[in-house]
Amino acid sequence: MLKRIAFAALAFAFLATPARATQSIVCEGTGGSDTSVDVLIGSLPVLGVLTARIEAGGQMWSTEEEKGATLITFGQGARFGDRTIMDFTDPNIEGIVISVRLQSATVGSDTIEVGTLTIPGVGVWGLTCVPG
Fold first, then answer.
1. Per-residue pLDDT of the chain (132 residues; tens, 9 = 90+)
2. 3-class DSSP assignment, residue 86
3. Beta bridge partner(s), residue 38
């Protein structure tokens, strides 16, 4: 009986939890490069990347299995006021394979976000982003 009460309380707690909102960051490479960064972030007390898809240098990386993409894992990240940093690792978490650094500025309702995409051994690109 006690197990059923505990299970019911646990189930109720999950049902009572409000849905978490998400935010996307969509970036394009500057200077006409066909570079893109598309990241879906969950609303958590810490930066939580739900999915990411990155294209640069004729290659593609993704946190989800996708044909033609190299699988990556969100390693670490943070938001510090107007700065966002994200590092992605190989699936075995043996090294950082992609780094994204973003800086935003807001005046009134206008926001711009710019940054860099660094992929060791592949290249570095400037980014302009649309936070959503």
1. 444 433 333 333 333 334 456 788 999 999 888 999 999 988 777 788 999 999 999 999 999 999 999 999 999 999 888 999 999 999 999 999 999 999 999 899 888 899 999 999 999 999 999 866
2. strand
3. 26, 53
Query: Residue 29 corresponds to which amino acid?
Result: G
User: For 13, which DSSP code?
Assistant: H
Q: What does the alpha-carbon distance between residue 29 and residue 48 come to, in Å, rounded to a whole number?
A: 23
pTM of structure:
0.79
At 112, list the tokens.
């711009």
Q: Cα separations (Å) of 14 from 37, 69, 124?
A: 33, 34, 43
Cβ atoms of residues 20 and 42 within 8 Å = yes
CA-to-CA distance for 53 and 55, rounded, in angstroms?
A: 7
Which residue's structure tokens are 């993409």? 69
Other CB atoms within a 10 A radius of the CB of residue 81 amount to 7
- The encoded tokens of residue 51 equal 């999915």
Tokens, residue 122: 């592949």
Report domain extents, the chain: 20-131
